[in-house]
Amino acid sequence: MNENGTTCRALLVGVPDELASVLTPLLVSLDVKPARFTTASAVGANLHKDADVIFSADDASIISALRGSHPAVRIVAVSRFVQTDRWLDAIEAGADDYCSVPFDVLHLRWTLKCFNQKKSSQIAA
Question: Could you tell me which residues are beta bridge partners of residue 37?
Fold first, then answer.
């Protein structure tokens, strides 16, 4: 849930099928409503405004495009790889967090909670 007590809205952008098929049910179990897009350009500007978080492929060009056009939306890079260099590349491109398979529901819950707390404190300021 987001800070308003409503279902959290998430976009999955460029996330490969094999990762989306595992991530989507976990997000739904956390009361997150995901919508999926194959590329960053397929996502309209209005949808970003409605999203609480974006789960993106760990592709620096996708992350950079998302971050550049919508700097306030939280981005989590998702990957099948756990290597530190991929994680660092994603963070340097503008991701706020990084998750790799196997996805951990506790990590996802913690990430969403932290994003909501930051968003709430920014609204209050």
Answer: 13
Q: Report the relative pairing of strands 53-57 and 32-37 from DSSP bridges.
A: unpaired
- Structural domain of 85: 8-109
Contact at 8 Å (CB) between 42 and 1? no
The answer to whether the beta carbons of residues 95 and 75 sit under 8 Å apart is yes
* Residue 36 within a domain: yes
Residue 40 to residue 20: CA distance in whole angstroms: 15
The answer to whether the Cα torsion of 61, 65, 68, 73 is positive or negative is: negative
Q: How many domains does the chain have?
A: 1
Digit-coded pLDDT (tens) for 62-80:
999 888 887 888 999 999 9
